[in-house]
Design goal:
- Strands 1, 2, 3, 4, 5, 6, 7, 8, 9 and 10 form a 10-stranded antiparallel beta sheet that branches.
- By secondary structure, the chain is α+β, with helices and mostly antiparallel strands.
- The chain is built from 4 helices and 10 strands.
Length: 344
């Protein structure tokens, strides 16, 4: 169950934020030439084609990274220098090496150690300072009402219906391409008329028609929405609509402030997959929901090819005992809290 390691992931994010900001004060004194990654001239790369002529995106791809989802508060620059990226990666490696030496916090019942996490060791290859690239400040433009609902979502244990759809093993939600603490693999398979993306987390397969068919009737509402793909040159564009209003934008701890933010049935996603070389797919997703966000926002994450990665089944299923145990524990805590009142 995901909740059992959220504490460790929260600590990891806090430490990464601290070490992320540490080299920036030094970078502020650097020459302008080091303020952003140097532009390089690349030869035009032509992706291979599938037998039916589609640009070939097939393979095993991963996006584990230590780059934070949103830009840390206090950081204005959109990119790291090479020196800053190297320093951040070194400090993150030292933190992982020393993780087992840190004493547990008072009342902490224990958790997975860092050996069992697979959250990456590098910043993204673009050296961007957050996965959110639009708005320019690297922050998701959430409305105050949506933030209030998020806080309710993260503390409510009154009913399984109010728990995370990931806790309930239904779906990771629209942000299922956002990196998490582990299981950051995606297998892409193409057949005539379809692109299929198998997500390691929750073992979810997205079947995306690319044959020009229209979306489902707008009265049909789904947990994972209704995807439709099309090709623009070498870029696969996937538009997903027809979401229901029961899910969360993001369900994993690595999404930090966005975890627990709800979405409405007005949600619309536009994803772009462009294979830029033999081992890289440039992935972008623009998220639009006027009932939750003040404007559309965009996340960019390079997907890296990893032919040696082995994907195992994520055996999450509805009806698992962890949800029942969480609710039973909440009821027990309520009974204990009410006992002194009954004795008076």
């Amino acid at each position: 169950m995901r909740n059992r390691f959220l504490t460790s992931w929260g600590v990891l994010l806090a430490v990464i934020t601290v070490i992320w900001l540490a080299p920036v004060s030094v970078a502020g004194q650097a020459s302008p030439a080091k303020a952003a990654p140097a532009a390089t001239v690349k030869k035009t790369w032509t992706p291979p084609r599938t037998p039916d002529g589609q640009p070939d995106l097939q393979g095993m791809w991963t996006n584990a990274t230590i780059t934070p989802f949103e830009r840390p508060s206090g950081m204005a620059k959109p990119f790291l220098t090479e020196e800053e990226a190297a320093a951040l990666e070194q400090q993150a490696a030292e933190r992982r090496q020393n993780a087992d030496e840190r004493p547990p916090r008072p009342g902490d019942v224990g958790n997975y150690n860092d050996f069992w996490f697979d959250s990456g060791t590098k910043v993204v290859s673009t050296r961007q300072t957050s996965l959110v690239v639009d708005p320019a400040d690297g922050r998701v433009p959430v409305t105050p009402d949506a933030e209030k609902k998020r806080d309710e979502n993260l503390t409510n244990v009154d009913s399984y219906e109010l728990m995370s759809p990931w806790d309930r093993c239904i779906t990771r939600g629209p942000g299922r391409m956002f990196p998490a603490g582990y299981n950051n693999a995606y297998q892409i398979v193409q057949t005539p008329g379809y692109v299929v993306i198998l997500h390691e987390m929750i073992h979810e397969a997205r079947i995306i028609p690319v044959d020009g068919r229209p979306h489902l009737d707008k009265r049909v509402r789904l947990w994972t929405g209704d995807p439709r793909g099309r090709w623009e040159g070498n870029t696969l564009i996937v538009e997903t609509t027809n979401f229901n209003d029961k899910g969360w934008i993001a369900t994993n701890g690595a999404s930090a402030r966005i975890r627990g933010v709800p979405h409405s049935d007005a949600l619309r996603l536009v994803e772009r997959f462009t294979r830029t070389d033999a081992n890289t797919i440039t992935y972008q997703v623009t998220i639009e929901d006027p009932n939750v966000f003040t404007r559309p926002w965009t996340v960019a994450i390079p997907l890296m090819r990893d032919d040696g990665y082995q994907m195992f089944e994520y055996a999450c299923h509805e009806g698992n005992k962890a949800v029942e145990h969480i609710l039973r524990a909440a009821r027990a805590a309520e009974r204990i809290a009410a006992e002194p009142v009954k004795k008076k």
